[in-house]
Amino acid sequence: MKIKVGFGFDVHQLKDNHPFIVGGVKLDHHRGAFGHSDADVLAHAICDALLGAANLGDIGHHFKNTDERWRGISSLILLQKCVQLIGEKGYSVGNIDAMLCLEAPKIKPYIDEMRKNIAEAIGGDIEDISIKATTGETMGYVGREEGVVAYAVCLIQKQQA
Ligand SMILES: Nc1ccn([C@@H]2O[C@H](COP(=O)(O)O)[C@@H](O)[C@H]2O)c(=O)n1
Ligand SMILES: C[C@@]1(CO)OP(=O)(O)OP(=O)(O)OC[C@H]1O
């Protein structure tokens, strides 16, 4: 078995009266993430972790933010496409561990739905998807609610030829 590790990071600007989609869940909040797609920071960090593990570049390389096909798209679809891309190199997803940095809202009540959405998108087991969160303790752009950040690591695996 060949096992590889990947790391992903993403940040999106927060704006008033904007939808806030994280892990495919629409959060109930007065501010939301701005981007070309649905700006799902968690899905994007996971995409980058998967692509990085397979040495396939990053999300912007595969899904350009000037391409009208991706405008407003659910990032769970982009995640499915990343799983297809690593699949073409013979890899499947082992596990994912992610960290969200956002001041508000509290995401604890949404975490299981996010894990389910991510697991469905990658065609994996919810037990292999971990999502955690921390605030910025009122400091920096996270603390001022100017932005939202996500980090993700993953393992991917394939049988040795
Ligand atoms: N947006 C968030 C941020 C944090 N949590 C949960 O609260 C705990 C305490 O947060 P700290 O920033 O003080 O570390 C943290 O362990 C998370 O479980 C959250 O649900 N949503
Ligand atoms: C996902 C893409 C493509 O719609 O756009 P955004 O939603 O702006 O997100 P970003 O994290 O900048 O990643 C890459 C993009 O090309």
How do the strands and helices of this protein lay out in sequence?
Elements: E1 2-16, E2 21-22, E3 25-26, E4 31-34, H1 41-53, H2 59-62, H3 75-88, E5 92-101, H4 111-122, E6 129-134, H5 140-143, E7 147-158
Parallel strand pairs: 5-6
Antiparallel strand pairs: 1-4, 1-7, 2-3, 5-7
Provide an overview of this structure.
- β2 and β3 form a beta hairpin.
- Strands 4-1-7-5-6 form a five-stranded mixed β-sheet.
- It has a single domain, classed as 60s Ribosomal Protein L30, Chain: A (2-Layer Sandwich), CATH 3.30.1330.50.
- With 161 residues, it is of the alpha+beta class.
- The protein contains five helices and seven strands, in the order ββββαααβαβαβ.
- The protein has helices spanning 41-53, 59-62, 75-88, 111-122, 140-143; strands at residues 2-16, 21-22, 25-26, 31-34, 92-101, 129-134, 147-158.
- It binds the ligand Nc1ccn([C@@H]2O[C@H](COP(=O)(O)O)[C@@H](O)[C@H]2O)c(=O)n1 and 2C-methyl-D-erythritol 2,4-cyclodiphosphate.
- Residues 10, 35-37, 39, 44, 59-60, 63-65, 70 line the site of 2C-methyl-D-erythritol 2,4-cyclodiphosphate.
Write a brief structural summary.
With 161 residues, this protein is α+β, with helices and mostly antiparallel strands. It has helices spanning 41-53, 59-62, 75-88, 111-122, 140-143, and strands spanning 2-16, 21-22, 25-26, 31-34, 92-101, 129-134, 147-158.
